[in-house]
Amino acid sequence: MPEYVASTDSFILLLAVLFIVGVLTTRFSTRLGVPSLIFFIMVGMVMGSDVLGIIYFDNAAVAQMIGVIALIIILFEGGLQTNWKDVRPVIVPSLSLATIGVLLTSGLVAVAAKTILGLDW
């Protein structure tokens, strides 16, 4: 940790400031009708090493782990809040996109790669 975030008090203060900024940007983005994620990314860039340099983070493994855990939580929560009656009307179109669409796309790419690039089957 950098020296200005080394103490526990400074770290807790930084977390509190980020929490307050997060709440304010969420309210601001709701009024503008813009996704709050855009403002979160801007705050991260300003607080990070790009502008102010208050937060320095370069551990790709931890970032990947946080992203995977967030994705698990998002998908789990989405599955919990999805009703079967909402899913039933879109089963056929979604399965056709997931199978026929993928097969057609991969076939077209294979033919294009063979024709344009001269690749073997």
From TrEMBL:
Task: Give the UniProt subcellular location, in the record's own words.
Answer: Cell membrane
Q: How does it sit in the membrane?
A: Multi-pass membrane protein
- In its keyword annotation, does this UniProt entry include Nucleus? no
Q: Which GO terms describe its molecular function?
A: antiporter activity
Q: Which residues cross the membrane?
A: 6-25, 37-56, 62-80, 92-113
Is-annotated flag, keyword Ion transport? yes
Annotated organism of origin = Mesobacillus boroniphilus JCM 21738
Key words of the record: Antiport, Cell membrane, Ion transport, Membrane, Transmembrane, Transmembrane helix, Transport
The protein in question is named Na+/H+ antiporter
Q: Which residues, by range, are in coiled-coil regions?
A: none
What are the recorded Gene Ontology BP terms?
A: proton transmembrane transport
Which Pfam families does the entry link to? Answer: Na_H_Exchanger
Return the GO cellular component terms, semicolon-separated.
plasma membrane
Q: Which InterPro entries match?
A: Cation/H_exchanger_TM, Na+/solute_symporter_sf
Query: Domain Cation/H+ exchanger transmembrane, which positions?
Result: 19-120
